[in-house]
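Predict both folds.
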Amino acid sequence: MSDEQTPKTEEQNLLERLQNDIDETGWDLLEEHHKRDALFLLTSDLELAPVGMAMARDEVEYIRGWLNDGKMSRPTDELIKTWLENEVKFNYLIVQPYVLIQLKSEDLQ
């Protein structure tokens, strides 16, 4: 038997690894990434791991579409102020050199 992986298996492994890398944090850990323009906020209808996979694979057409649709954006100063006032928590995923964030679902309400 061969240990060679099919592209689909490699894709599944990457997606699984990215899913396992998702963690939770407050704004304090994210602020430095925001200051270097490496932070992207995802809307609740996107999933961190698949977006991270698109970024890791440099799938520009998907990323451009999410940016144009407003599903992926850089946090505004107004949003950050609200997050700080409400001690909002985020799920985040690092895909070097970027950090993807999403409001935790209970903070969306």
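Second protein follows, with its predicted structure tokens after the sequence.
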Amino acid sequence: MFKLEENVICECSKALLLALGQKDEYTQLHSERVVELSSEVGIALKFDVEQIKILRISAAFHDIGKIGIPDKVLLKSSSFNDKEWEIMKNHSINSERLVNSLHFENSNIIANAVRHHHEYYDGNGYPDKLKGEDISIYSRIISIADSYDAMSSPRPYHNKKSHSEIMKILEEENGMKYDPIIFEVFRKIIQISHYKVE
């Protein structure tokens, strides 16, 4: 890939995240933190430069499909009803479509990663009920980083949780939601991460 194209992709990423931020600043800032947390896991897994780039772009775009979620659902200050939850779950498919529309190198890998970041290791996630290593390794990394950051930030429908509270929940869900090998890497890196909460 030419350096110019890399810069264009980077600028596209920033532009889309800024557009999302105009709609929902929380999701924009959350995505930026998930990029960094995911990168720390990728580095610990000894990803090469190309893999880290794919991981970072995937993490940046994982929630970009929320641009297409109606404000009355996306910005709702209480829990979703069943219909609203089904609408919200579409964001991962929307994210895939947006990435596929960009047609840059590795966009198919990135599109797959964003589509599946809510798949569970035990097969009970969405949208495709993939299981285990059928789920992209990028998705499996983003899933843990996404969950940690979401619980560490206050939202209208839940309070901010402490690091120990978050880790207890993640541990309970390990092997169900999360890949146990990636979880063990995350457990180690979060102890020294800038993004660890108190």
